[in-house]
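Subject: design request, 746 residues
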């Protein structure tokens, strides 16, 4: 009867359903007999600000253990897109600014001053500036990816969802470990930790990682190599338990990234302008994506403070800390305080024309300071009434500038610079009430006040600043919320329905421009989300989770064009009044026999504009003070989002007389990702497959393995774009790599 009921639900949701399935993997030091245990296991998560399992959490949630992240070689948040349904991450122009999308809810912006639709958290601390999320991920207990608006439980308000990373905690017993990896292109990764008690009440944990080498590209003219990593990160945690009712944790972290960039390649012929001292010429399109090009003029290099012989690279530094205190005030009331401060320095040198033509080069110079304070009160006893209430404050200061070298295309170098300060304060809360042992009602609200101030914005061409009124203000006063229904008709079966409202901040378009209208603010966007789902364990060996969603989008933030009476048409982030997205995911975990585990998931989404009049850029007429342009009705036009995603994995462990051999593979399909720039810049659909083979003793503490990533050498692009119409560029994904892994833990 259970199977029949679930089958009916799955048939209803199959065209647009969303899974919340997690799959656990054993740690490197775990006995092989445990790793080979049969059955579908579950992961304990804190997505709802309380400890619970994934299967008992009534939201669209995917959780992946840190050991699974390590097995797949994932050390950056961007790489999650091949492991999580309906997630895409695109590096803007191939640089360090990520553009996150969950279920099609995303934001295209190569500048770094605006908020993301997807919130990224590390140990409950929000990273509100997307570029600061690019530090190495290591010593992670698990990652939780929440789909849909988040606001009633989290410090920042988002329309797309949240990605939470939870670090491993200090241990009661002394333990240590090291994992080493060496592979193709001289790629090396080393990770180590030590953890244990300092006293009966004080524990510590220290972990570090380094990544070196791995560059797979060469200069098409000189043969010079490009792409080697050079990054080091470390973190330390002190956990103090002065009593049975209090835990205080201090976390400090820091690191640097002095890696070379993955270069861009020309996917179309490039006719150089040869302005000034340059010589016009044709650079043929690259048929080999491992070929690239770059070059920096002495004048530009001197302004950027780099050598004219430098390669595209970054010199970034991140550091910070947080203090987390959890104190039980009574048997059923816990006070949690999270204080955090982070600093991020970005210095990034890029060649956007992928050549030595000096037609479009860029140097980013950013300094970001973020302080946040969160205070929560929550119930701790499992009862009919469970609740959490809190307040959040954030102060974000950003100093940014970027130099754009158009020497050989336009004849000048542009210096764009500004300051921005963002202050946010909010109150939030959520309550769940068990009407019966099987039926639970959920409600939550959040009020947020934010001020966003842009100061001293300027675009200078040589010594001349194009306009002086470079101050703008915007903000929001918004209420977001959630109402939900949870029904558990029998053990192992959860049905739920949620309605929520999410809000994303407005902001400013801070691209280099002589037009003062460009930095006028765009409005916040609002998303009304409707979702139903089912989570079902069909016996101990099969799990099927599914849900369907419908999003009603208001004032969606899109890159568009506005009409200025001073200068004609201006490219700027604008608001589309109404649009909609619908779809979902289905995810299955199967453990048919001992030692064998199979996961499968599929996601689908489609969106279109409901009300949006976009300016036709070819229709501009008139003169200064009397410009006119016609509009094009975009109602019914599809949003530029990928429709299908599919991912899966198979792992099989075989006992070998005191040892165990695990063979594992994972694979992912991503559908075509349309570009707002037109079909030329669409990212083609692709398949990626990876594999590992690991040997470990059943009662030992070491492991040795082989790995292969992108084993079929799929050629694909991470981003396609242009800067100046002649240079059509793309950043390639990594080709096939393979290597050896060694681990030792005690």
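Subject: RE: design request

Done. Sequence follows.
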């Amino acid at each position: 009867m259970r199977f029949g009921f679930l089958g009916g639900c799955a048939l209803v949701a199959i065209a647009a359903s969303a899974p919340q399935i997690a799959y656990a993997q054993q740690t490197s030091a775990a006995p092989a007999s445990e790793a080979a245990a049969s059955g579908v296991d579950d992961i304990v998560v804190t997505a709802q600000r309380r400890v619970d399992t994934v299967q008992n959490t009534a939201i669209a949630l995917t959780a992946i253990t840190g050991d699974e992240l390590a097995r797949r070689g994932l050390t950056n948040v961007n790489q999650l897109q091949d492991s999580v349904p309906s997630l895409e991450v695109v590096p803007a122009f191939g640089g360090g600014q990520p553009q996150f999308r969950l279920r099609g809810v995303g934001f295209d912006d190569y500048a770094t001053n605006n908020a993301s639709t997807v919130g990224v958290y590390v140990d409950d601390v929000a990273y509100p500036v997307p570029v600061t999320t690019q530090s190495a991920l290591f010593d992670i207990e698990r990652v939780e990816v929440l789909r849909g608006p988040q606001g009633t439980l989290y410090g920042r308000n988002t329309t797309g969802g949240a990605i939470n990373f939870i670090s491993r905690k200090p241990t009661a017993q002394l333990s240590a470990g090291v994992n080493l990896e060496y592979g193709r292109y001289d790629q090396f990764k080393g990770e180590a930790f030590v953890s244990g008690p300092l006293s009966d009440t004080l524990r510590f944990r220290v972990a570090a990682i380094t990544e070196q080498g791995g560059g797979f590209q060469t200069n098409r003219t000189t043969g010079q190599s490009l792409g080697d990593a050079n990054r080091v990160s470390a973190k330390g945690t002190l956990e103090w338990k002065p009593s049975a009712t209090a835990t205080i944790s201090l976390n400090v972290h820091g690191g640097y990234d002095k890696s070379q960039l993955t270069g861009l390649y020309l996917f179309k012929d490039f006719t150089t302008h040869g302005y000034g001292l340059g010589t016009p010429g044709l650079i043929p399109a690259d048929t080999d994506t491992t070929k690239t090009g770059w070059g920096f003029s002495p004048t530009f290099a001197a302004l950027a403070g780099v050598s004219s012989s430098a390669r595209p690279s970054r010199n970034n530094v991140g550091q910070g800390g947080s203090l987390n205190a959890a104190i039980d005030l009574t048997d059923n009331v816990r006070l949690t305080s999270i204080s955090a401060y982070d600093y991020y320095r970005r210095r990034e040198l890029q060649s956007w024309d992928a050549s030595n033509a000096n037609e479009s080069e860029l140097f980013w110079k950013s300094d970001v300071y973020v302080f946040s304070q969160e205070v929560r009160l929550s119930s701790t006893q499992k009862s009919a009434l469970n609740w959490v209430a809190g307040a959040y404050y954030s102060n974000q200061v950003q100093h940014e500038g970027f130099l754009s070298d158009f020497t050989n295309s336009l004849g000048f170098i542009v210096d764009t610079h500004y300051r921005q300060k963002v202050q946010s304060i909010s109150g939030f809360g959520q309550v769940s009430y068990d009407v019966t042992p099987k039926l639970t009602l959920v409600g939550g609200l959040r009020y947020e006040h934010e001020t966003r101030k842009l100061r001293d914005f300027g675009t200078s061409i040589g010594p001349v600043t194009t306009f002086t009124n470079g101050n703008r203000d915007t903000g929001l006063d918004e209420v977001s919320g959630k109402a939900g229904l949870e029904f558990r008709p029998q053990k192992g079966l959860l049905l739920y329905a949620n309605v929520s409202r999410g809000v994303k901040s407005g902001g400013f378009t801070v691209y280099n421009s002589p037009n003062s209208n460009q930095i006028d603010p765009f409005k916040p966007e609002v998303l009304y989300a409707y979702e139903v789902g089912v989570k079902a364990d069909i016996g101990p060996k099969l799990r099927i989770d599914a849900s369907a969603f419908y999003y009603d989008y208001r004032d969606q933030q899109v890159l568009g064009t506005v009409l200025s009476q001073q200068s004609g048409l201006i490219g700027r982030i604008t608001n589309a009044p109404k649009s909609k997205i619908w779809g979902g995911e289905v995810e299955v975990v199967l453990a048919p026999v001992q030692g064998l585990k199979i996961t499968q998931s599929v996601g689908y989404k489609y969106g279109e504009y409901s009300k949006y009049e976009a300016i036709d850029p070819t229709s501009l007429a008139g003169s200064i003070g009397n410009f006119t342009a016609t509009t094009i009705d975009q109602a019914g036009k599809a949003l530029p989002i990928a429709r299908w995603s599919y991912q899966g994995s198979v792992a099989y462990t075989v006992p070998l007389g005191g040892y165990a051999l695990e063979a594992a593979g994972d694979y992912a399909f991503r559908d075509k990702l349309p570009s707002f720039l037109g079909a030329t810049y669409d990212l083609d659909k692709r398949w990626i497959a990876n594999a590992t083979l690991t040997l470990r003793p059943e009662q030992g503490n070491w492991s040795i393995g082989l790995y292969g990533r992108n084993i079929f050498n799929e050629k694909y692009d991470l981003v396609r774009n242009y800067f100046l119409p002649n240079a059509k560029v793309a950043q390639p994904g990594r080709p096939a790599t393979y290597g050896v892994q060694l681990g030792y833990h005690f």
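The longest strand covers residues 412-434.
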